[in-house]
Design a protein that fits this description.
single chain, 265 residues, Rossmann fold, Helicase, Ruva Protein, domain 3, 10 helices, binds S-adenosylmethionine
Amino acid sequence: MDSSLKEHMEELGITPTQSLGQNFLTDENIANRIVNSAEIKEDETIVEIGPGLGILTERLVKVAGELIIIEKDKKLYEHLENKYTPKGVKVIHGDVLDVDLPEFDKVVSNLPFSISSPITFKLLEQDFKSAVLTYQKEYADRMVAKVGEKNYSRLSVMVSTHTDVNRLFNIPKDRFYPSPKVDATVLKLIPKEPDFDLKYPKVFEEVVRQLFSYRRKMIRNALNTGFGIEKDEKIPYQNKRVGNISPEQINEITDYLVENNVLNI
Ligand code: SAM
């Protein structure tokens, strides 16, 4: 480990907390790559989630028009506030899952792995240009998986419906202190309109949730177990397996269920 990082933590009286996903990045080159990947323009507002000891913050502050950082750990927050408020950064103390996110253009974060799922779903509801985010590699694999692949999941469907997602690079676990159990992957997400006519987004989300609770079943069986839907020969793709059904096909199923009053949710 970088001894200056250790000294910095001792100075601040910080002992990394596992429940807050405090695995601090120690590699300056990787920090540069992450920030460069966001392609920040000088008039853009950037949000950083979980700035920690500030390895990304010190780079972001140089390139962002406006920088907003959100940190849950009180000691880290106090340190960040003293250091970055005078530089014009808005430093928020709180849980990013509870905070009303301000308007922003881009989000950059070495996410605490403990909140990968809720923060991803929260971000999918926001309007922004792009996100550069670090996830556990296995989680990132599920986010980018395509229909029919081993890791294709509810997460893959929701992420690919609402964003263009690209795998940028992996970060070996020894580039963090303390080292997590698995390697990390940096992804870039660019929000988009769905490629199909998503008329019933809430029902679509619920159909996706139920279908992927029964990933290996046929669609008709998954709909029966999930929603109690009886046999109906007209339901599209009902003899396909859930893991082989594309987001667009799930949308067709959703349209059929809603428009034929098979499902009322
Ligand atoms: N950005 C730093 C880096 O790259 O070294 C720290 C990354 S560390 C993986 C995650 C950071 O998120 C920690 O500083 C942790 O205290 C903070 N954190 C954890 N849960 C959070 C939450 N719910 N809201 C805001 N910050 C959180």
